[in-house]
Amino acid sequence: MATNHSRKRKGSGNNHRPSKKCAVEKEDIVDVMTDSERKPNFSSLSGPNGVNRNHASPLVANKPVSTRKLIIKNFKDKPKLPENYQQQTWDKLKEAVIAIHKSTSIKSSLEELYQAVENMCSHKMAPLLYEQLRVLCDEHVKSNVSQFLADSVNSPLYLKQMNTCWQAHCQQMIMIRSIFLFLDRTYVLQNSSMPSIWDMGLELFRVHIISNRSVQNRTVVGLLLLIESERNGEAVDRSLLKSLLRMLSDLQIYHEVFEVQFLEATNQLYRTEGQQLMQERDVPEYLMHVDKRLNEETERLLHYLDQSTKKALITCVEHQLLGDHLSSILQKGFDNLMEANRTSDLTLMYQLFSRVKNGLHELCAGFSSYVKKRGRAIVINPEKDKTMVQELLDFKEKLDTIVSDCFQNNEKFILALKDSFEYFINQRLNNSRALAKFVDSKLRAGNKEATEEELERLLDKIMVIFRFIHGKDVFEAFYKRILQRDFCRKSASVDAEKSMLSKLKQECGGGFTSKLEGMFKDMELSRDINIAFKQHLQNISSPDNIDLTVNILTMGYWPTYVPVEVHMPPEMVSYQEIFKKFYLAKHSGRKLQWQPTLGHCVLKASFSAGAKELQVSLFQTLTLLLFNGTEELALEDIAHQTGIEDTELRRTLQSLACGKARVIQKVPRGKDVEDGDKFVFNNEFKNKYFRIKINQIQMKETAEEQISTQERVFQDRQYQIDAAIVRIMKTRKTLSHTLLVSELYEQLKFPVKPGDLKKRIESLIDRDYMERDKDNSNMYKYVA
Questions:
Q1: Does domain 84-211 have CATH number 1.10.10.10?
Q2: Where are stretches of biased composition, namely Basic residues (predicted)?
């Protein structure tokens, strides 16, 4: 099947008449083509037997391609403008511009005026039109200057008058530009050196009004006075400030005309204010005032000041109110804020100090100084020995909270806290002993005072304090001494004991806790041995009036004890022999050495007021048992019958006759035991408790033990120094004195003086472990 395609022919009919606007200066030929009818496509048809047969259409329409020409010719005579067209058109435009300047109605329509401008530009009158408009606007702006030269106008009214003039000028230039928009978008746009109509208006206002010295000064002074009034708490017209400052910014004179004087006035204001308020107000009030001032200036930036002023303005306030007074603020009130735990004020101080240069550095230095001073007051005072560790824990917890909540966990403050604690906590050697006693007391109390979780947290806090201690070996020595004196104690929490050892081991290594672990192991084994011993006593005939408990101490783990010989009652000696046979039967080859100084007993005593149980030491026991056979004994008699050393005996008698629980009486009365004193059993003794613990007088012993413990620590340190020197020299073979000392400081975990190191080096040279170089006495060689 063939299909015919046709398209309507486009052409120029009689109804289309070219207007003057479409006249052309040269002849253009436009060919309008009509689509020819194409030959039809043959279709493929299928017959009934499935045989394809082609059928051609008998009609084939073929039309020749035709071409027609549309010719547009120029006017024979070029159109001419009416006479005086330029002047008449300008007069119409001028009248409209003057009406806009005077805010009166415009006689011509805006469309008509716009068309007039377009026609003048199309006939190459744009340069003259632009110049005439500029002159007309120039004259108008000049005429407005006189109103600002009168001295009788006050400042607020003057600013309003200036703002009214500026707003009117902007509105007028917007209206004028809308009329002359074609001029602005063609002629002005093609001349890059020529300002736009809007920019021309700004330039005229800047040159004739704001650049006038008198007008400019009065305007800026008025603005500054208005801002000063607002800073003094008065309500001002912020929209007026915003409009006039936007005017200065649009005129591109904001910086040199206003900002410089504004910042100078701001500097002077806050310099005077800062000096005055630092004397009148306390630190919290002053910080709140500074924060208030910063917020006020930020608000001014949001409402009317140009954003380009932000950095200089805020820096000015920070410098005058903070930067110049950092030291004064810290000296005047930082310690008080820390003592009173004023976290909100400290947070504000941190936030403000972080805004100024060196602010956080100064604050961190003040924080470190406070921690050292306050901490040193805790550890140096001997009267606080009993409460020192708890105070340190509370102090550390308080400081951690302040660093976290107030100082935003700043790394500088965390490091300053660590260094400060490490400084003051090592000011006194006795701190290690106090910490050891505190740990022991908490472990003995166990779950009686706290839950397992609370005890675990307490041990973690104690370990924090322990890390600050340089002489950790001193802590170990005193902790061992406490265990030695209190080895028969019953820990309230075995898990807590093991947890403490685990923490010490993790902190200092297995070598540090090996002996402590051995001591605790002895305690556990002793409990098992005593259970087996009691079962053994049931199978043999033995006195039933004594209940013996023995603690087996391995000599390598425990401190060395001086052997003491005392006169024991036969019953006790008998029990000792029974236990000795029992123990050696299970552990052959071992040697038992009894230590009377570590013994404790529980005695049943009868008084006229009733029976009591006395928990006393072995020396106190031997003394009291003598009064079973007599009522009165002299000091010399007691010494002869007990065999106790004189100093120890005097302390023992003092605890029994001069303490709180006076089960015997001294004749004559007095605090100290003197030669010739006699002692009488106090049958009238009364106490509300059934079991009474009579403590041995430990004052002198503690001082002596402390000295001996420290001496042993120093002796052990000498061995460690010697071992470290030999280890280093064996590796390096040859080393200078300076490098050797430097490596020793890195390896040794306790504080040591250069003089001590030099002594140990000399000692090793004398013992031929190392030698000096023959040519350089400052060099050492290892002797294999």
A1: no
A2: 1-11
